[in-house]
Amino acid sequence: MYDIRLENVTKKFGDFTAVDDITFTIPKSSVTVLLGPSGCGKTTLMRMVAGLETPTSGKVFFGEHEVTNVPTKRRNIGMVFQYPVIYRGTSVRKNLELPLLSEKLSKAELDKRIDEVAEILDLTSVLKRQVEELDNGTRQKIAVGREVARQPRIILFDEPITNIDLTSKLELKRSMKELFGRLQQTIVYVTHDQTEAMTLADQIALMQDGVITQSDSPKEIYEKPNSQFAGWFLGNPGMNFVPPEFIKVSGSKITSPLFTQTIDLGSKASSVDTFGVRAEGISVTSSQAKDGVQARVTRKSIGAGGQYLLDLAVGSLLIKARVSHSIGRDAKDSVWTNIASENITFFDKAGKAL
Ligand code: ATP
Predict the structure, then answer these.
(1) pLDDT 10s digits, 197-243
(2) How far apart are alpha carbons 222 and 106 in whole angstroms?
(3) Which atom of ligand 1 is nearest to the CA of 14?
(4) Pocket residues: Cβ below 6 A from ligand 1
(5) Residues 6 or more apart from 108 whose CB is under 8 A from it?
(6) Upper half-sphere CA count for residue 225 (Cβ side, 13 Å)
(7) Would you tell me which CATH number, out of the four given (3.40.190.10, 3.40.50.1100, 2.40.50.100, 3.20.20.140), belongs to the domain 240-347?
(8) Is the peptide bond before 237 cis (omega within 30 degrees of 0)?
């Protein structure tokens, strides 16, 4: 397998810079998700890896080979797009088989590849059906299966589950996770959906305005965002941000009406503008705590896994806390909160983590 290396890659459309001087390595045999809001340049970056766009400047390497100007058909990559590309008028099996015919595989190897992807994608029972008879979600599974069965070294996915119904989405996400784990191809996966990224990625490359602002494992990027943007974009809800009027800096020491301890930030203290805390980083109790900050419950909602999301008001500040089922169920109008130091990320005026 190959890793993919981008060296100072820029793509301009007229005066507009869609991808701005990116140097980045996509490791081999792993899943890298390009994540970011609409228009941040993820598809353009992926299209340059595919050879569907040529960089305005910079180079693209597959392993040691420079491919910047190599046409798509000579890059030996698989691609899955938003809308399923299928061969109409044929069966599911034929759809999976056709791209393999040119590879001159033995009948046993051909059947093995088809049966394996069909099994993981739950297509075994429909192998003989005509593709027209199947819904959009199943057609997208066929498109995925066909690219995976060819076993190219690199497969690129551009928002492959954006346009399918919710049930198929969950199913396809589960099957892709299994496929990626078993087959160990180098996967580049573009999405604007952070839950999809958190589920599928080994590595998330978070993009904003044509640059990669952070790349890390899902856990690392969620727990240690290097910017307010990363804290806000990942997580549902995104990170709570506490503005300067709730933060007091005296020399190297930080205090806040949101927590009861004093935090020593050393020389970084003078740069503090705001701090962030995840909803699950706020501890909540129903009874008065010795070390606690009183908060008013303005809204309660129950979420996945039976956990509660509480909207809390601490003075004029509104924050969200995620709590266990029993704490959420018992929470009345008033609760006691606190935030442990390790759950706090401080940011400077530019939104950069300190
Ligand atoms: P989306 O999810 O909305 O596709 P994205 O992050 O994938 O967003 P890109 O499709 O890479 O974003 O587009 C990045 C920017 O480049 C956008 O502002 C887009 O309008 C612009 N752009 C992309 N392709 C072209 C093109 N062929 N000509 C002109 N501008 C383009």
Answers:
(1) 999 999 999 999 999 999 999 999 999 999 999 999 999 999 999 99
(2) 46
(3) 29
(4) 13, 18, 36, 38-44, 192
(5) none
(6) 27
(7) 2.40.50.100
(8) yes
